[in-house]
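This part of the workshop introduces the protein records we will be handling. To make this concrete, we reproduce a full record directly below.
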Amino acid sequence: MNFMRTVQRAMIAWSVLFGVASAQSWQPLRHQPPFQTDATLLLTDGTVMMHEFATPNWWRLTPDKTGNYLNGRWSRLASMQSDFAPWAFASAVLPDGRVIVEGGEFNFAGKDFDLGAIYDPTTDVWTPVNPPTGWTYIGDAPSVVLANGTFMLGAGQFANTIALFDATTLTWTPGGSPLYGNGETGWVLLPDESVLEVALDAPHSERYLPGLDKWVSSGNTPDNLVKYLELGPDVLRPDGTVFATGASGHNAIYDPERPDANRWAAGPDFPNGDDIADGPATILPNGNVLCETSPGYSTGPVTFYEFDGKKLTQVPSPPNPGEGSTWGRMLVLPTGQIMFDVTDDFAIDVELYTAKGNYKKAWAPTISSAPGAVTRGQTYPISGTQFNGLSQGAMYGDDAQMATNYPLVRITNGSTGHVFYARTHDHSSMGVATGTTIVSTNFDVPAGMETGASEMVVVANGIPSDPVAVTVQ
């Protein structure tokens, strides 16, 4: 009996991590969404929150009872204010588990491009958020949650203006002015808690130092990454380097450990005239960066590559990748798979990508303190190391942000093998690559989950910790 349960758990774990797909392959969701897809976010209860293109509407994808998103089901969430139907907007999951959405390059329900709203998943309620004082346009703005949990937002239209958000009072404070305009740029959170930006004013880059509320020069990229007044996404890798992709087809690598003042080196160019002039890329559990490219701005055909730190390798593409990289969106799931969808009016086909290889043990979260028994409906603390992962996860830039650098708690029942996610909130840090520093969060045990002997892990960017035993009462 115990042997059979062990085999069952192993099979379920394999299914959760890899579905039934082979390496470097795509699988369509078995239940495709009943709406035109757009930007996605991962809620801290393990469900996926997706925007319906050109509307105020949002939807939820819930994985099946084994934790497999391939068989997940869609349900409708509350809508934002009726005059807020954005496309290409700023967004983030905050440390308390709420979601903030700001601005939009287009607003299909009105003329205002400075609207915002915050969503509480515990009540399924959106609350409007006023823009920063003096801002009449937010547009397709960059944003990031700083290591201390503060949401930082940039103004669109190439302005060198930022604002810092107080999630308790829903108010804004002006921040230090960037050296260069932050239009069309992306922000990358680094392990030292600074934020890196490749400037549209090529070949410059800069960093934001939160402790000083100040931007400083961070050297020049070897090649011009800008074209069509666009840039590509920038992804932090487990070795601490940033792979910065270019709309020009050139790429660059930022290495904070380089001894010289200019910490940039040339990266490999995309083959065949491909580039990422707007478009998605994401860290994979194996440490590679998955990139969607196309030859020119918003033109096909689309090609996917993995970057392993030295070279680019072409990998399969999904069957309906859109007409250019600018339409793609990616999200890192707790299973380690990558969810991909296409925005605008292209085919509705949400796919899951399974990469080849696996993560290194040193990259995984570790649990140092956790309850041995929990009661349904109650809240408990849990602490350990690397709860936020080594990277923000999937990146795009100014048009979409879908970071997943926060801990999820996954509990698997030892008898049935059924998987439950306990909503996490109030993380002690939103920093990446926090090393041996102890960080913590709180988790709410689902009121309807199964009782009995179970295993619990913390997951960050699709990489789980070793399990600890827990009894659900």
DSSP finds one helix and 41 strands in the chain.
